[in-house]
Design goal:
Elements: H1 7-16, H2 18-22, E1 39-43, E2 49-54, E3 61-68, H3 82-89, H4 101-108, E4 118-121, E5 126-133, H5 137-152, H6 158-174, H7 178-190, H8 205-210, H9 213-223, E6 229-235, H10 239-250, E7 274-280, E8 286-295, H11 302-326, E9 333-343, E10 347-356, H12 361-378, H13 382-401, H14 408-421, H15 428-438, H16 444-454, E11 460-467, H17 477-489, E12 514-519, E13 527-531, E14 536-541, E15 549-556, H18 564-580, H19 587-593, E16 599-605, E17 609-616, H20 621-633, H21 639-653, H22 660-673, H23 686-691, H24 694-705, E18 712-717, H25 721-732, E19 756-761, E20 768-777, H26 782-806, E21 814-820, E22 826-835, H27 840-855, H28 861-878, H29 882-894, H30 900-910, H31 914-924, E23 930-935
Parallel strand pairs: 2-6, 7-11, 14-18, 19-23
Antiparallel strand pairs: 1-2, 3-5, 3-6, 4-5, 8-10, 8-11, 9-10, 12-13, 13-14, 15-17, 15-18, 16-17, 20-22, 20-23, 21-22
């Protein structure tokens, strides 16, 4: 590739030198970034790399990866889509695993296809994802054998290639829609002059249907070779043993003689601003995107790392300004963000993005252009920098505190990027120390200079996506060029910062007390406190995450106890109030005050209860509980915030009804509840939003949330018991109670007792959506939850085998089985999938045939092993997560389930028999099913 100093590259080099021109760098800053000392990296004689790391989160698991430094960009003209096709063929026969035996074997040891076992293909790489248990050496050995087979022993049998064509076509079909069509319009502009738009990973569907077998084998032979591959193993492993196994197993893979050059493709620069307006009748959203492209400089030295940190600060400050815009009444910005990224391996991009109201594209574009110009011309303020430093430091501090409890899947993704793009991996300890040292040295003048280099008129791209409607006027590309020129001429004023209060609470509430404490004998380590106002606290101390505490506070009732009019407002009341802030702080001021704090507090109202979710850490637990207290005792009424929320929400939902998949979900919900007036709202219409009243929504919020009577608070995480007791007395025992006694009401929502079937038409793509649902009454118990989950898992496996692998008629499908506790205990099982319109009936009948087989007891021991092993493995990993304990404990207490069930759950799995699932299938799959088919117009 030509690396000459073109004007494009010269501009990029100048941008990268900003730091050198504004500060005196020490020689140390030019040194290489160190590698995480806990990581072991090696290169085999054949050129294959390996990355190994011992990590016990979760226990008895290892994350295996095969990363291939080759993707769709390397395809020849007769191979469009075959890089992705190769990925599929790796699951359809290798030297040591015939046909679908890889999937079948992994399911038998508890690795679910799709949820665990997976892979992806992009422009530049292909990555295979294999998490497996480590408690049995033979499973680890088989996992490595699978990776080796993928690396150089895929069979590519002609019959299997031809069978997989249908699955690939269905994956292509599943992606069709307005967003995909608009993407194909704007990618040639964003990647102007490059190969990228010509090599989309999904490829050319006609070629996929008709390519010769030799073409896919040629791609595999050319690019699946040791010098372009890396093996990753991160998890509960012995490093020396794993390294020896990898050397023995992968070192023998032969090197490729006379290999093809692995070209890296550039995205050329351009002096002019490129503009593209892409419209489609089925567009989901209206978006405005502003890109500034630069040549990508790899992060290799401490100076580079310091530069990355500076970019992070600039992004954070610009994000904060866009967030302020989102809170203003009448704002065109539904959502907005700013930050850096990449366009391929050779180009970086600084981007401002906004989803906007479809009628306010001009205003949204003007805001993005003006904020970019304001940052470039005037820079930022000291107050903004201080807040950004807090936010950025908190990110690295959290990673540092969680360094010993980070899950292996997160670590292994970093190593993949190091192999593919040389992304640094110095480890959380080094990064936290580095950030602490460097943040004070990144002065405002330096960051303002950086903003000038990131935001320029050269190599700029503007993309607008919008719905195509006769009555809607979207600016043309010529209009946008005029807006650009006008903003370039207009004067922008410097940003005016606001002095903030330094406390959430000027006076603390009068504390209560803890009246009663007991240890739960059924669950060692779990405590139950009763506070002086009657609030109950369930505490599960854990060490799963050093920097995580989750809190779930709830009271019974929900919107089921409200009138129909109140219920409509209850669906949105918590979002409306959250938009307004708390106490005397509007949302903008609140977010500024919380800069650098890890305290996410989210009120909610459901059918049967209401409460507040909290995610925080030991350091910020008091702040989080202060927020919880204020959301209950002092929510802030703001008509302006209500209007802003309604406008933004309307901007989100106004076109989702044009999306066939959303339309399918809405219509399925109607059938589910037979248009019951108290049914949940899946997608609010603009008419519903316009019918809401700010005062009514606020009163509903206060009615539901501002009374802690019968409140239960479940806490799980790295809690200090002494600290939590003190904070509970201060902020929970002081919550107001009226001794209200409520229980959820039965609204009469029932699954149909008669079969319901409907066929509708929507959309222009050759794609149908099929939904088949079953439901009815069932007692709520741990055993029933388990059996229903097992039945859903069994049916999912059989549908994948039949509908995907045998018929080749779907890309993805499954059976989602769930059990609801109150006020009317009931189950639902839903099967859904997109497919070709001509295959609807064939696939429907195939679903019914698989259900009938289960009802007839055609369940093999192999089928049962797959189900029970998956349940056991999920149970093992879930127990190591705080979210599991919050959900499980709240479920147990709320629905009065035996606490002993948690300890007995593994034995319930062991006792599960195929006769149980056969009997359950006869009970669950009745004639009163719901069927919905949405065909293209």
């Amino acid at each position: 590739m030509n690396k000459s100093l073109t004007p494009w590259r010269i501009a990029g080099l100048l941008a990268c030198l900003w730091l050198c021109l504004t500060s005196s760098l020490s020689a140390q800053n030019q040194t290489a970034i160190p590698l995480d000392p806990q990581l072991r990296i090696g290169i085999l004689p054949n050129g294959m790399k390996y990355y190994l790391r011992q990590n016990s989160r979760p226990e008895k698991r290892v994350e295996l990866r095969l990363a291939v430094n080759a993707g769709s960009l390397l395809e020849d003209e007769d191979q469009l889509g075959l890089a992705h096709f190769v990925e599929h063929m790796c699951f359809n026969g290798t030297k040591n695993f015939a046909k679908n035996e890889i999937v079948s074997y992994l399911q038998s040891v508890g690795v679910a296809f799709g949820a665990d076992l997976n892979a992806y293909t992009s422009f530049d790489e292909t990555v295979y994802i294999l998490p497996i248990p480590t408690d049995k050496p033979e499973i680890v050995q088989q996992g490595l054998q699978i990776l080796e087979d993928w690396a150089h022993l895929v069979s590519f049998e002609g019959e299997e290639i031809d069978k997989e064509r249908g699955v690939i076509v269905e994956e292509w079909r599943s992606r069709l829609g307005g967003e995909e069509r608009m993407m194909r319009q704007y990618l040639p502009v964003l990647y102007y002059g490059s190969r990228y738009p010509e090599r989309l990973p999904i490829g050319d569907v006609e070629l996929i249907k008709n390519f010769k077998h030799e073409a896919i084998r040629r791609y595999y032979n050319d690019w699946y070779r040791p010098d372009l591959m890396a093996i990753m193993a991160v998890g509960d492993i012995d490093l020396d043993q794993m390294e020896a196994q990898i050397k023995a197993q992968f070192g023998a893979i032969p090197t490729k003689q006379n290999p093809r050059e692995r070209t890296v493709f550039e995205v050329p620069g351009h002096a002019e601003t490129l503009v593209k307006v892409a419209k489609d009748k089925e567009a989901n959203f209206t978006t405005v995107r502003l890109y500034y492209k630069h040549p990508l400089k790899p992060t290799q030295t401490l100076d580079d790392l310091r530069n990355d940190l500076a970019v992070e600060l600039v992004s954070q400050m610009l994000n904060a300004r866009l967030s302020e815009w989102m809170q203003k009444e009448g704002t065109p910005l539904v959502s907005a963000s700013a930050g850096d990224g990449s366009l391929g391996r050779e180009s970086s991009v600084f981007q401002l993005f906004s989803a906007t109201n479809e009628s306010k594209v001009r205003e949204a574009l003007k805001i993005l252009l003006e904020e970019a110009k304001r940052a470039r011309i005037h820079g930022f303020t000291e107050g903004e920098l201080v807040r950004a430093q807090k936010v950025v430091l908190q990110r690295y501090e959290k990673a540092y505190k969680d360094r010993n409890t980070t899950e292996s899947a997160r670590l292994v993704n970093q190593y993949i990027q190091h192999f593919l793009t040389q992304q640094p991996i110095p480890g959380a300890e080094f990064m936290y120390a580095f950030v602490q040292e460097q943040l004070p040295n990144l002065e405002l003048s330096m960051l303002n200079s950086l903003a000038q280099s990131l935001i320029s008129k050269e190599n700029r791209v503007i993309i607008v996506t919008a719905p195509e409607k006769e009555e809607l006027e979207i600016p043309t590309e010529e209009d946008i060029q005029k807006i650009i020129k006008q903003v370039d001429i207009n004067r922008v004023e410097p940003y005016q910062d606001k002095v903030l209060a330094d406390k959430l609470m000027t006076a603390l509430p009068k504390p209560g007390s803890i009246k009663k404490t007991k240890n739960l004998s059924e669950l060692p380590g779990v405590q139950h406190w009763v506070l002086s106002n009657g609030v109950e606290v369930i505490v599960k101390p854990t060490k799963f995450k050093d920097d995580e505490i989750l809190v779930y506070a709830y009271t019974p009732g929900g919107y089921s106890v409200l009138t129909e009019e109140q219920q409509r407002h209850a669906f949105f009341a918590t979002s409306i109030v959250a938009e307004g802030g708390i106490a005397e702080f509007d949302n903008t001021d609140l977010q500024k005050m919380l800069s650098g704090k890890n305290a996410r507090v989210t009120p909610f109202i459901t059918t049967t209860n209401q409460g507040i979710n909290v995610s925080t850490n030991p350091t910020d637990l008091e702040t989080a509980l202060q927020l919880l207290h204020l959301y209950i005792t002092n929510p802030r009424y703001s008509e302006q915030a209500f209007n802003t929320w309604r406008d933004k929400t309307a901007g989100i939902v106004q076109n989702l009804g044009a999306n066939t998949q959303f339309y399918f979900l809405v219509e399925l919900n109607k059938l589910f509840y037979q248009d019951h007036p108290r049914a949940p709202i899946v997608l609010p219409s603009v008419e519903i939003l316009n019918s809401l009243q700010a005062q009514t929504a606020f009163e509903v919020y206060k009615n539901r949330l501002c009374d802690a009577s019968k409140m239960t608070v479940v806490v799980a995480g790295n809690v200090d018991e002494t600290q939590l007791r003190e904070l509970s007395v201060q902020y929970l025992a002081s919550l107001p109670v009226s001794n209200r006694k409520e229980a959820p009401k039965d609204l009469g929502l029932r699954f149909t007792t008669q079969p319901l079937s409907q066929t509708l038409q929507k959309g222009s793509d050759p794609k149908s959506y099929v939904g088949i649902a079953y439901g009815g009454s069932m007692p709520y118990s741990t055993q029933n939850i388990l059996k229903l989950s097992a039945l859903g898992s069994l049916l999912t496996n059989k549908l994948i085998e039949q509908l995907r692998e045998e018929i080749g008629g779907v890309y993805g499908t499954g059976a989602n089985a769930s059990l609801t506790a109150s006020p009317n205990p009931s189950y639902t099982v839903v099967v859904s999938f997109p497919c070709a319109p001509e295959n609807v009936n064939t696939l429907r009948e195939a679903v019914f045939a698989e259900i009938a087989k289960i009802q007839q007891g055609q369940i093999s021991e192999k089928d049962m092993t797959k189900v029970t092993e998956t349940l056991k493995r999920d149970w093992e990993t879930n127990q190591q997560r705080n979210q599991f304990w919050v959900n499980a404990l709240s479920d147990m207490f709320q629905h009065k389930l035996p606490l002993s069930d948690l300890k007995a759950y593994p034995s319930y799995i062991d006792e599960l028999k195929k006769e149980d699932l056969q009997a359950l299938a006869k009970q669950v799959f009745q004639d009163n099913r719901i069927e919905l088919v949405v065909n293209p117009e």
